[in-house]
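Deliverable D4.2, example record:
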Amino acid sequence: MSTNPTTEDPHRCVIHNVRLSYSDALFAPKQGRDAAGQPSGTAAYGCVFLLDKVQNKADIERLTKAALFTKKEKWQDKPVNLIGKSIRDGSEKEATDGYGPSIVFISARNTPKNGSKPAVVDQKFNKLNAEDGKPYAGCYVDAIVRCWAQDNGFGKRINWDLQTVQFRRHGKPFGAGEIDPKKYLQELPDEDETPVDAPSGASAEI
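Output generated by the structure prediction step:
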């Protein structure tokens, strides 16, 4: 992917070697969730990109530059508070796998229009589908996103349109950590020390 995407469109950014999160709507559009956890709104493609504050410093600077350009273009010098409404700090979701104070993240969406959807490809630009098993939450990708200004009844913010995701390399899948058996089970004696007889008439109901 090009490393200088803003020469033709100051709203568009290419980000490199970032971690993918919440990728369940990458291949099929899904609705969001309301406060009660129920499906709400228009179905859209989407995912979240995690950027390390040190390793992805240049990418964060590009995103910030595009967001500030879009803010200036839309609202000129009017005071508009966009903190936490564009590029968000990972400490907001510190309990979530992959997030934390060393991370910033952006949410990117693509609402299908006339059959449009984000391109998802591998390192050689071959098209990927859900059946390919990648990209997945926890892997590393390059991506193309484009910011735009929202100003409606739902508030003012800078949103990111999801245009392309390119699988870059494998990473530890989120939620794949090992479970500590000592937390849930008890140590058992050797099999030949304490024979266990199954109680007569025992049954299980599910």
